[in-house]
Structure formats: C-alpha cells, structure tokens
Specification:
Length: 203
C-alpha cells in the first residue's frame, strides 16, 4: 500500500510577473540555491517527491531552474490574466490519477519549512474529500491541502476568482489547523520582504 507521501503531490505556482519585486524573484539567491530551489528542496525534505512547478512569465528560465531539482513543470498559458489560480489549475490538471490530494505552496515561500508541511500533512486523514489550511492569528496561510474531490470545483472557478475562493465556498467542510508561527503567512512580494527574510534565514 502506498504511504501518504506517495498519495500527495505539491503544486508550486511560479508563473507570476513579480511586478512588485521588479525582477524574477523565483531565481533570486537563497543560500547556495535559488528561491524556488529552496522551496523545492523543502518539499523534498518533507518527503514529498511528486512536485509540479507551474511556469508562465520567463517560462524557459524558471523551468530550467526547476529542472535542476528534478521536478515536473507545466506551462500556464493564462498566467498574464489568470493570476495564481490559473497556475494552480494547470498544476492540478497535470496530476496523475493516483494522487489523492495536493499541497499548494507558492514559489516565493522558501521560508516555509518541512516541519510546517508535516504539520498540515499530519492532519490529513488520507481522504480525497479533505480541505485543510494552516491558520495563524486568524489568518489563512500556506501550504493549503486540497483533496481530489475538490479538483473539479477548483477547475470550475471563474478566471477572475482568487485562489482562496475554493476555501471560502467550502468553509463548512474546511479544516483550519492552528499553528504557532507566522511563517505560514510569509512570502517575498517586495525587495524589502526579500531583504528581511533572506537576512533572517542566512544571518
């Protein structure tokens, strides 16, 4: 029988234009690797090996970097108008039928540790109707876990919807996992974010 780590995949949206950062943040240095390289490495350290990176803006560069870490990439043709949701849709559509659930983790979240991923996975009951989100101080963060039963509803969301719309629409079925660290809320949207977290991680 497959264990839970073989029945769960990771979808990493990495298609954005990073307009607030002013440069391709996925490829910024992070220790000895890149931002997206560290994000992928954290997934591997959590025992997750079915990883799909969704590319869009400067797709060739991002895909080449992701391939260094042996992951699958898919191109999101709607990245300019569809925001993060369109990348999640593209990644989920590429998942094999054996996958019962996926974690959604943003490419610019190298700060989210394997332990944080384990915290969410440990709350999963290996059911395809699961929908989980970590919560800190009342705010939803990442990684979000989406069970296969919700994949059709995800794909049917309108192109102008936000990624969190699936959670809002299914609030009654959503399991909120309280965590004691704000790290689940952090990403690298601006140069100031990058400077803060990079110095904190590599002091």
């Amino acid at each position: 029988m497959l264990d839970l780590h073989q029945q769960i995949a990771v979808v990493i949206p990495a298609a954005g234009k990073a307009s607030r950062m002013g440069q391709l943040k996925q490829l910024l240095p992070w220790g000895n690797v890149s931002v997206i390289g560290q994000t992928i490495s954290n997934c591997r350290a959590a025992g997750l090996h079915q990883i799909i990176v969704c590319t869009g803006n400067q797709s060739e560069l991002v895909a080449a970097e992701a391939h260094k870490f042996g992951v699958t990439t898919v191109y999101n043709a709607d990245y300019e108008t569809g925001e993060i949701l369109s990348s999640i849709k593209a990644g989920v559509a590429a998942l094999p039928a054996s996958i019962l659930a996926c974690l959604v983790l943003l490419a610019d979240q190298p700060m989210i540790t394997p332990a944080a991923m384990h915290h969410v996975i440990a709350s999963w009951n290996m059911q395809s109707d699961a929908l989980l989100v970590p919560v800190y101080a009342g705010q939803w963060g990442h990684p979000v876990l989406i069970g296969r039963d919700y994949f059709p509803a995800l794909q049917q969301l309108p192109s102008n919807a936000r990624a969190r719309t699936l959670l809002v629409q299914n609030r009654a079925q959503l399991t909120e996992i309280e965590v004691d660290s704000p790290i689940i809320l952090a990403d690298l949207d601006t140069p100031a974010d990058y400077a803060h977290w990079h110095s904190k991680e590599h002091a």
